DNA sequence: TCTAATTCGGATAATTTTATCCTATTTAAT
DNA sequence: ATTAAATAGGATAAAATTATCCGAATTAGA
């Protein structure tokens, strides 16, 4: 469904949100260990999310990654997915046709539109805060 | 969402079903041209579908690919996807956790379960006949 | 029997995705 | 200033996916 990079990106952002919520800044090493991802690869993904202003990166000795507390609840899953995988997955044709719409639908169009719409809605309405809260309360997990 | 191989596989199977429905057997060349896919790569995918008994392949001079008419309505999209991409996409965790269930959910689990379930249901209930019929009636398209 | 049309399948190549390595740069603290 | 800890980013490598090439095998029909 999502690329590995996107999976890492989502998990990393949730973890950063959780820690930011608690007033803590987190290092790459910490993130990679917490979400069980390869460090250098995760670094590239965080750079991308930082350039896209989903997260903030702070260089230097006490540097790391964080998100302003008051932005956490307004950041949607779709922004993360978009920054890494683009929007093809929740806006594009299921069979990869360049143009697929009501006037020129692929064979799956009518069947797929509900799935895609539900995915789009889920990604565009789910915010970081609710995801981080699940981790905080020990109800959900980022690894294993 | 689906791999390129899977997209080709679905389109190819729909086209084979359409022609089989009309009592015609189709060649690889015909298929590749009709769904706009690379011939040799499509051949590998058709081999896989053939080994999985989704389609039949006939060797030799007047050979090609076909599906028994009376099986067309009973073949589900999920069988094609399964043969090529496996079932991870509609059964696995959205964040790639090896174990993700109600007792040990990933942060997205509760949000993702609806999407995944709708995708699973769509794939498991949509049959080849309805997809081929759309093409036959000129309402849907396999390319452009 | 021969030929032509076809699928099969092994080998290889190209491209994309995933992953690693290493140096430069930044910054807080001593 | 110096040092240590951290991110940035270019170069490269490994693995997976997508794509191509070509000879072997099969089969209908002349």
Textual characterization of the structure:
Two copies of one chain form a homodimer. Chain A has 144 residues and is mostly helical. Chain A has a single domain (4-136), classed as Arc Repressor Mutant, subunit A (Orthogonal Bundle). Helices cover 57% and strands 4% of the residues of chain A. Chain A has helices at 4-21, 28-35, 39-51, 69-72, 77-85, 88-91, 109-125, 128-136, and strands at residues 56-58, 64-66. In chain A, strands 1-2 form a two-stranded antiparallel ribbon. In chain A, a hairpin with a 5-residue loop joins strand 1 and strand 2 (64-66). Chain A is elongated, with a radius of gyration of 17 Å. Chain A binds chain B through residues 1-2, 4, 7, 10-11, 14, 77, 89, 92, 94-99, 104-112, 114-115, 118-119, 122, 126, 131-132, 134-135, 139-144, and chain B through 1-2, 4, 7, 10-11, 14, 77, 89, 92, 94-99, 104-112, 114-115, 118-119, 122, 126, 131-132, 134-135, 139-144. Chain A binds a DNA duplex (30 and 30 nucleotides) through helix 3.
Helical fraction of chain A equals: 55-70%
SSE sequence of chain A, one letter per element: HHHEEHHHHH
How would a textbook summarize the main sheet of chain A? 2 strands, antiparallel
The shape of chain A, in one word, is elongated
Name the average pLDDT of chain A: 98
Low-confidence stretches of chain A: none
Just give the CATH class of chain A.
Mainly Alpha
Supply the number of helical segments of chain A.
8
By CATH, the superfamily of chain A comes out as Winged helix-like DNA-binding domain superfamily/Winged helix DNA-binding domain
Main β-sheet, spatial strand arrangement of chain A: 1-2
Radius of gyration of chain A: 17 Å
Beta-strand content estimate of chain A: under 5%
Structural class of chain A: mainly alpha
The CATH level-2 architecture of chain A is identified as Orthogonal Bundle
Identify the biggest protein-protein contact and residues per side.
A-B, 41 and 41 residues
